[in-house]
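Q: Convert this sequence to structure tokens.
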Amino acid sequence: MILTHTTRIKTTHTMTKEQSGKNAYEIRLEVLQMAMNLADNRWHQQLDKARFEAERTETGTYELPEDKREREALRLAKKLYSFVENSTEDEG
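A:
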């Protein structure tokens, strides 16, 4: 039995000199995209765990994890954006 884990991160976030002047909407969009990726990865990890347990116990069946990705992404986005807002105040 082989357990594989796949990461579904689509973008790498690096900041160049030209990108540092983003407006609030662009920053919020990037934060939301990061949060969506995190929520999606967490759900897929739960799914992989359920599949692994089904194989390990030889039941062959498993239940899909509750899909709270949208709610989780919004929660994470608020948390991440709050960090961004507070970090810029701390730098000044």
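The mean pLDDT is 82.
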